[in-house]
Design brief:
The protein is an alpha/beta fold. It has twelve helices and 15 strands. It is elongated and about 80 Å long.
Length: about 375
């Protein structure tokens, strides 16, 4: 359709290929509107999906929208998005970016290198989550978007934007109501590394409670997920002099294995001294679990050793209500444990204690 002679997009092993994920149906055997693709670092996810979006435009004229967290990321979007894939798949083409709507939206164009800009073809847009309010007002400008890509949706810092998920939902709804329709199918592709099992997207979709590191594919209501591992990429990283020098560091080890940087299964610890300030008792499946704040470790610790003198326990779920336990949906104990979970300061003496804690946090039987 456009610039046919410059389109050399193809996927060759061992590089990442997301086509299987994009072909899957969700739990209801329907076409999902959210695709989640995660692997270890340097596996080629970004290269595949950036190339895939450009290929779909060149073949079928399907425009795309790139989603970033902050507005400053839009300043050189034509370089961060296109430079690498341009060299690999689309040699002879260049990307041009034009800021519109007071910086709220960047219009993206493709053009043949050396040709007049008047020959350029608009291929998509770039917007930021922090500009959700402006996007809502300008949504008519995005009415021809076919799919949205959000790369690096998980963060190493775990410092997500305030109300980030709400803003992403608002942006999607604004785009999906375009083209004269109240709502239309606009898939969102989330791409990331194996970083944060308790990121806000997984929590909202119930993935955190279901996902196991051994899982390769998972289906949900309206979404599908791939959790891969590129062994060749991991091996090459491991063999570099830089990674050899830091081979004993936990961060280095994560990039060489199929595991999350923040994997709360590692928070099951028996070496933590079970002494400190008693915070409360969790009642789950007819068993009691004690919650203590361990001052010397500066963490919360949940164990099978509860304090029998503690009069009232907090029921993890409504089904755990008993004579000596009450159910409070937003209890102080739940809020403390939820905060500790998200800051990686929550530990357990066993898997049973962990499940009791998560049942309380999520108000749902684990």
């Amino acid at each position: 359709m456009y610039f046919d002679e410059f389109n050399n997009f193809k996927v060759m092993p061992p590089y990442h290929d997301g086509r299987k994920l994009l072909s899957l149906k969700d739990l209801n055997k329907e076409k999902p509107e959210i695709y989640i693709d995660t692997t270890n670092r340097t596996a080629g996810k970004t290269t595949f999906y950036n190339g895939y979006l450009v290929d779909r435009f060149l073949q079928f004229g399907e425009k795309f929208c790139l989603l970033y967290r902050k507005k400053y990321e839009l300043e050189i979007v034509e370089r961060t998005f296109f430079d690498d894939i341009g060299k690999i798949f689309f040699s002879g083409l260049e990307m041009i970016s034009e800021s519109k709507a007071n910086g709220a939206i960047d219009f993206l164009y493709l053009n043949q290198v050396g040709e007049k800009e008047s020959n350029k073809k608009q291929c998509g847009y770039a917007i930021s989550i922090s500009g959700a309010d402006e996007i809502k007002k300008m949504s008519h400008l995005l009415s021809d978007v076919v799919r949205i890509l959000f790369d690096e949706f998980q963060l190493e810092s775990r410092r997500y934007l305030k109300n980030e998920l709400q803003s992403v939902i608002s942006i999607h709804d604004s785009i999906a109501r375009g083209a004269g329709q109240q709502t239309r199918y606009v898939p969102l592709i989330l791409v990331g590394n194996l970083l944060d099992l308790y990121n806000p997207y997984y929590e909202a979709m119930g993935i955190s409670m279901r996902l196991d590191i051994k899982t390769n594919y998972m289906r949900g209501n309206g979404w599908v997920l791939a959790q891969g591992f590129n062994a060749e990429a991991a091996s090459k990283i491991k063999q570099t002099g830089f990674h050899k020098a830091f081979s004993s560091h936990d961060y280095t080890a994560v990039s060489e294995k199929k595991e999350y940087l923040f994997d709360e299964t590692n928070n099951i610890r028996t070496d933590i001294p079970n002494r400190g300030s008693y915070v409360g008792t969790i009642s789950s499946k007819n068993k009691k679990y004690g919650v203590r704040y361990i001052w010397e470790c500066e963490c919360f610790y949940v164990s099978k050793k509860s304090d029998p003198s503690w009069v009232t326990a907090i029921a993890a779920t409504e089904s755990d209500i008993a004579e000596d336990s009450i159910f409070i949906r937003r209890s102080k104990l739940r809020e403390k444990l939820e905060k500790a979970l998200h800051t990686n300061n929550l530990y357990y003496d066993s898997m049973e204690s962990k499940k009791a804690s998560l049942s309380l946090i999520y108000n749902k039987e684990i």
